[in-house]
Write the structure tokens for this entry.
Amino acid sequence: MSHTPILSIRSLGAVFPNENGGLRALENVTFDVRPREFVCVLGPSGSGKTTLLRLVAGLLTPTSGQVAFARKQQPRIGMVFQQANLMAWRTVRQNIMLPLEVDGVGEQTALEKTREMIELVGLQGFEDSYPRDLSGGMAQRVAIARALIHDPDLLLLDEPFGSLDALTRERMWNELSRIWQAKQKTVVMVTHSINESLFLADRVLVLTQRPGRIKLDVEVDLPRPRKDDIRYTSRFGKLARKLRQAIE
Amino acid sequence: MFKRLTPILLSALAFLLGWHLLTRYSGIPNFILPSPLSVWMRFLRAVSDGSLLRHTRVTLIEILLGLFAGVLFAVVVGYLLAKSRSLEKALSPYLIASQAIPIIAIAPLLAIWLGPGLLSKVVICALIVFFPVLVNTIVGVRAVPAALYDLMNSLHATRAQILWKVEVPASLPVVLGGLRIGATLSVIGAIVGELVDAREGLGYLLRVGDFQYDNPMVFVAVFTLIALALTLYGFVLLLEKRFLKWQN
Ligand SMILES: Nc1ncnc2c1ncn2[C@@H]1O[C@H](COP(=O)(O)OP(=O)(O)O)[C@@H](O)[C@H]1O
């Protein structure tokens, strides 16, 4: 793993205007993300996790500090939201193809890539289904395929499995972990589940209560690939305890 | 197909039979309530001498032009109002006031200003179509999920791409709902215009039939209007079927 960061966040702060002088959502957040690193951002709800992700995606402008990318000003970004956020009027195939359409990629290439992505997330046979016919887990797979198809520099995940039931969620962890290893992407993922972060991440950042500041920055040195039973190891338990204490 | 049409055919048959019996046994004179048979004979005569076709064509052209102009204007203005709160605040008092004036009250004015020809009818028709389509466009565009804008912005989509790939398809169901109402109203608009002042059209035929105590003629004109309205309505339903198949 290279050590020049792909993403550098420096003294980032975000204030939302309100009646009493502004709501401080984030304050003085500084960290780096290295290429191909899987970083999880953990924190109580309202600690500014989503705000942080939106700042990185360029959907919000910071009140102070900066978000800098190593290679270019505008990196290609793939984003997965809390809800699958699919277009109801597009089929699975058309939803996945959207980023390529926006980039103006030719139809032949786009179809080819879409087929690849559908295979990667295991949705063969559902190409022509509409979102209303998909289960929550399938919809979120479509969203993941859509976020990866244009080969983004950075994958941003905002509690992507929060709306799924426990079993589906754990299955999706394995899927995501496999996809991440196959695609070698840099990932920043927001979550409020300690298990989720330990199962997936190389590194976990814990934010404080509002205004969100970085309280803890830990390497997750658990071996990969991580199987289900890793949660019963003492190393996992130790890390989990550490994170839990930080979140309190 | 036949199964679906059977109840409609039966009710039409019952209606004609009831009408026939009423004129036959109630003693209401033919010049007040003509029998179905005399209306049918009058219809055949109006078809064979070409007058019905000619007047229907005139009205249909007024309706189509008025509908087109009204919808186009309403969709464009509705979109702008949906996107700009300040524009909406500035214009909505006028829009609401304009709805308080019955169209019948200003139709004579429009006829004086724009003359007795095609233009005044098209304008009246467009005015009456305008409002329902406008309101639905505003509602439809406002209801586009914010998360879809986030998605498009994270992909660095252009304004035009957001318009055509998100805003238009997302608001289409509601806009077409407005068009359904507008299509029916457009027939009323054209007739109101023709009743005020016209030398041709179904409204003119109505008036002439009335002056000449040619009641069967009035009925022929009314039924033709109903057929026009139903055809337009059916056409909008076809559009919905074609473009909203994802809703099932
Ligand atoms: N667009 C916004 N306008 C005003 N306040 C906001 C906005 N977005 C988030 N906030 C506020 O900022 C705080 C942090 O929100 P968020 O980033 O969603 O936290 P988290 O994702 O950790 O739950 C919350 O108190 C929230 O109400």
